[in-house]
Design brief:
Blueprint: E1 3-8, E2 19-28, E3 31-40, E4 43-49, H1 64-73, E5 76-87, E6 97-99, E7 102-106, H2 133-145, E8 150-151, E9 155-159, H3 167-175, E10 180-182, H4 185-194, E11 198-208, H5 219-243
Parallel strand pairs: 1-4, 1-5, 5-11, 6-8, 7-9, 9-10
Antiparallel strand pairs: 2-3, 3-4, 5-10, 6-11
Helix pairs in contact: 1-4, 2-5
């Protein structure tokens, strides 16, 4: 049966929906990753807290390559990621969930590929639709099934962090067409595509961004907002798992087809 990966973002550190939970250390070329393995209604699930248990890893220090490679080595084909975001769009208000469909990358110091040189070669991965269309459709159907209002589109602006953005930066991102701002979706989404894993992010709006919010931003504010909305996130993820088809019908699984043998996962060790 297809394994589903869940990457828990800020405020989502514990896979409370799972049964038979066991920890496992997964060794990759990029580092060792601790994950939790379990099941939901007989569906095997791999849970990974992006920031570590208790939020010990800041966004610019997350080992994104190790995390995605660990998922790949465990046989994960689909990843449902959660993330706390600030809003630059007055129509995307605190407490709402957005299924982002595009991103803008303003990170500075993050390695964004498994293919750097040598035998692995160079890869120019297509990200016309960076977030899996099929997975987003499942999430949208899941939201409708539980009568949960969501936004089905939104452009995620990814910044380096760990500081929050200035009002001037937020104004610029808004003028460029950004809707939400966060610190983790890139390179996570890009690496998932290179690994031929379907990936979608459930973006939870925790606050309006700097210059829009009437008060200074704090991490405690973000954590509190996520705590209040954890139940909604859990309901959406559960229903999405229940509605997930066994077979994939998207192009994510063939992202490396042009590479021949490398595209069969032989670059993984």
């Amino acid at each position: 049966m297809t394994k589903i990966g869940i990457i828990g973002g800020t405020g989502v550190y514990d896979p409370k929906i799972l049964t038979g939970v066991a920890e496992e250390q997964v060794r990759t070329d990029y580092g060792t990753v601790k994950v939790k393995l379990g099941e939901y209604n007989s569906t095997p699930i791999v849970f990974l807290p992006r920031h570590g248990e208790g939020h010990s890893i800041p966004p610019h220090k997350v080992n994104y390559r190790a995390n995605i490679m660990a998922m790949k080595k465990l046989g994960v084909e689909r990843i449902l990621a959660t993330g706390a975001v600030g809003s630059l769009n007055l129509e995307m208000r605190p407490g709402e969930i957005v299924l982002t469909d595009q991103f803008m990358d303003f990170t500075k110091n993050r390695v964004q590929t498994f293919f750097e040189d040598g035998e692995k070669g160079v890869v120019h991965i297509d990200v016309t639709d960076p977030y899996c269309l099929s997975l987003r459709k499942v999430l949208s159907s899941a939201a409708a099934a539980i009568n949960m209002p969501i936004k089905n589109r939104g452009t995620y602006v990814c910044t380096e962090g760990p500081r929050f953005e200035t009002p001037a930066e937020i104004k610029m991102y808004s003028m460029l067409g950004g809707d939400l701002v966060g610190m983790t979706s890139v390179p996570e989404v890009v690496l998932a595509r290179e690994a031929e894993i379907c990936y979608a992010i459930i973006a939870m709006v925790t606050n309006f961004a700097a210059g829009i919010s009437p008060t200074p931003l704090t991490h405690a504010e973000v954590l509190e907002a996520m705590k209040q909305n954890n139940e909604n996130l859990k309901k959406l993820v559960i229903k999405a798992i229940e509605l997930m088809p066994e077979e994939r019908d998207c192009d994510c699984q063939n992202a490396l087809a042009e590479l021949g043998s490398l595209g069969q996962g032989k670059y993984i060790s």
